[in-house]
Write a structure and sequence with these properties.
This protein is of the alpha/beta class. It has 12 helices and 12 strands.
């Protein structure tokens, strides 16, 4: 099977591409810079996927990349910290229309789209289901994901075989560009861990998410799937990070509303200069109001078990030390020679 993966030099897309190749499938990537993309796969001593130069917002390059493919995984996306409102709408909405619409025009029937629980977010976890309506948002990332969601659901309603996966925060090793959740982990180790009430968050290991996506590529027949991951209270999260890294986290008690206010203020400052922090109005909304959400039963049906978060964060931090995102002095339990915690 030849599979086009968008976002193949990003966190989720690169892990999907690697697992598809390991399973014997032919992988093609749509990339903006082939030199950088080839350098990433060479660094990991991985086979070079086939590559087409282009962008998901360019219809012609999308059509070229999809030619003679049997399936597509659409994992490319703009994030709250990495793009302006116009960029988010262009990438997350226009890009999704280009990739999925063109795939259907070319007769491709195995289509898997990586969405986000933010598209159907609700503070009441019982209301976060695959049948929940898209959640209106006043914030740009949420708006872009909702618009893309409405488009995909309209295609599903017309009979298109499209699978949509809704992950929570994605963490794990081998993150090419240090995505938002990984930047947040680094920020907490560097600057202190803000603990707000008895709240928590769900995070899924990128390798488990990729395994599920690959299963849908091969065996899926459309549908919607929740994969928020393992729920940890923030105090549990901090305990695990300390236990696997040996770092001494500074724990800072704070109220959720103050963090949400801080996020809005940081967003204002971002309009005028670069701010090196994972804090934003959207990230703080989800971090302080996240409920416990059930994972899809399809995990067990496909033989996938979510990793223990201790293993996930051990692997995360070991990789971050090896790549100099964190220092060995910060994380004394990481074995410098072996590159693991």
């Amino acid at each position: 099977m030849r599979v086009l993966v968008t976002g193949g030099t990003g966190f989720v897309g690169s892990h999907v591409a690697r697992q598809l190749q390991a399973a014997g499938h032919s992988v093609r990537l749509l990339v903006r810079d082939q030199t950088k993309a080839r350098g990433y796969y060479a660094k990991l001593n991985l086979p070079q996927p086939e590559m087409v130069t282009g962008d998901i917002t360019e219809a012609a390059s999308v059509a070229e990349a999809l030619a003679e493919c049997n399936a597509v995984v659409h994992a490319a996306a703009g994030t709250p910290l990495g793009a302006t409102r116009n960029e988010l709408l262009r990438v997350n909405v226009e890009g999704t229309r280009n990739v999925v619409g063109t795939a259907l025009e070319q007769g491709i029937r195995q289509i898997v789209c990586v969405s986000s629980i933010t598209a159907i977010f609700n503070e009441d976890g019982a209301k976060v289901t695959v049948d929940a309506p898209p959640a209106p948002s006043k914030l740009p990332y949420g708006q872009s994901k909702v618009e893309a969601e409405l488009y995909l659901r309209s295609l599903q309603a017309s009979g298109a075989s499209i699978s949509i996966v809704y992950p929570g925060g994605v963490v794990g090793p081998d993150d090419p560009k240090l995505s938002d959740s990984m930047r947040a982990l680094k920020h907490r180790i560097d600057n202190g861990f803000r603990i707000f009430g008895d709240g928590g968050m769900q995070q899924v290991d990128v390798r488990d998410l990729a395994a599920f996506i690959c299963a849908l590529v091969v065996e899926g027949d459309g549908g919607r799937y929740l994969l928020p991951g393992v729920y940890l209270k923030w105090t549990e999260f901090a305990d695990i990070v300390e236990s696997v890294s040996g770092c001494d986290l500074k724990r800072i008690p704070v109220q959720g509303w103050k963090l949400r206010l801080m996020g809005r203020l940081v967003d204002i400052v971002r309009k005028f200069r670069v701010v090196d922090t994972p804090v934003s109005a959207e990230t703080m909304r989800y971090a302080t109001l996240w409920p416990r959400i059930e994972n899809t039963h399809e995990l067990a049906a496909r033989g996938i078990t979510l990793r223990d978060p201790k293993q996930t964060f051990s692997d995360c931090i070991s990789w971050m030390v090896a790549e100099n995102h964190l220092s060995g002095e910060q994380c004394p339990r990481v074995d410098q020679k072996e590159g693991r915690a």
